[in-house]
Amino acid sequence: MKTAAVAAAVLLLVPSLLRADEVFLKGGAKFSGRIESQTDTMITIDIGDGVVGVPMARVDKVVKGRSPLDEYDDRAKALGAQDADGWRTLGRWASHAGLSAQAREAYQKVLVLAPDDPEARGALGYVQQDGRWMTEAESYKARGYVQVGGEWMTRAEAQMVQASADAEQARQEAERRANLAEADKILAEQRADKAEERAREAEEVDPWTTMSPWYGGYGYGVVGWPSTATVTTRQGTTRPINSVNPK
User: Fold this and answer.
1) Is-contact 103 68, C-beta < 8 A?
2) pTM across the whole model
3) Residue 27, in any domain of the structure
4) What is the pLDDT of residues 197-240, one digit of tens each?
5) Number of domains within the chain
6) How far is CA 244 from the centre of its chain?
7) How many H helices and E strands in the chain?
């Protein structure tokens, strides 16, 4: 009798003995679970924590078998609503089978019947604090912890983290302001250089390109020229143009 009981327990806790539906993809990947639907273009398979849809164009082959999900459903149907031990055992089996959603379902049914069941409470993430069962978050809060960035820590640690974050933000702001000031300085220098260049170009303009001759009237010719202008005479000498007789 003991041998038969041990064998039954082993079969109960070894889900690998079951052969699930398997969808092999052309790239080498594989999904195991229970096929929900299959058409010429798409196949959907329930992997326990959800349903995955795969285009048939990516499927290499499909191997059908009895999945752990099928086994779970059959065992759940056979349990009575008040069978806490049966649901506990099924939750344990589902957990070993990798059916986390189904394991939670079974353990939640246990808590309805036995609210202080330690196995079910532990499997569902509860901890015991001051003689009471509570979630992990409630346990941390009861001990004065706070959550910062998804991590639980003491208030002193949280203050240190916040101070460090504030200091880093201040450093970044100071760096930003310094960069803006440097950019303004460079722009001002560029504007000054441009203005100086324009002034220098204005001083270097050829007087002949800007001079406007002064005509004294018809028949008189040019009577006014810049004092710096010169002219070369027929004899080859150079004299200021003002000294040349325009006649």
Assistant:
1) no
2) 0.47
3) yes
4) 888 888 776 555 555 555 555 555 555 555 555 555 666 666 66
5) 1
6) 85
7) 8, 13
